[in-house]
Amino acid sequence: MDLYYGTCGFPRSKKKLREMVNAVEVQQTFYKPPSLETLRKWREELGEEMRIHLKAWQLVTHPPTSPTYKRVGIRIPKEKVDKYGFLRLTDEVKEAWMKTVECAKALRGDFIVVQTPPSFGYSEENVRRAREFFKWARKSWERIAWEPRGTWREHLDAVKKIVEETGVIHAVDPFRLWPPRSGTEILYLRLHGRGGKEVNYRYKYTDEDLRELAEMIINVKPNEAHVMFNNVYMLQDALRFKELFDKLAREN
């Protein structure tokens, strides 16, 4: 089994991070994609061995009413508000996706993470949108992980059908939902802290938590496991997880 463990974002300098973990999920591409030159430089600083994932640009997933647009100064004209986000296959969303793919190529990245907001909850219309979008998107980038938030958790049969039909990986926080509905051959896990409805970023994982996580992974025998921590203590927790995982793997 190939284990990739790391952080969502850069809690240390890139050159330092490469010595500590073997995976990172770039967050800047979600807010406002950096220049391709900057991304190529990041790859250089992170080294060839680092597994780099990246989040899809928010113009693909989130509506212009999302506060994350305002945070980075993205203003969408009123007449175009319904052209962005929610995996709509509009020219605007397609362009934003292709920009994300450009970023992935510059980073020589692995997974593009598509995190849909709670406002993109389960509905027949959103099932159709997700199915059509992922079928189209995988023509330009094969490895896509989808983390659906909101009411999808109550409609896991629909999630299973979408991921089976489109070939995307169901990204989950394993302490909130297990197992992922795309099967366990390839795992993409995003750890947002225990407690809270969707996230609890200030949570520090206990040794017992990390042991439980390691056991979950070892028990399903995946070919690949990508374990990405997205909490305040992400780096410390990732390193403690790896130590506990190695110990448990030796015992099994």
From TrEMBL:
PANTHER family: DUF72 DOMAIN-CONTAINING PROTEIN (PTHR30348:SF4), UNCHARACTERIZED PROTEIN YECE (PTHR30348). Gene3D superfamilies: Protein of unknown function UPF0759. Signal peptide: none annotated. It holds the Pfam family DUF72. InterPro entries: DUF72, UPF0759_sf. This is DUF72 domain-containing protein.
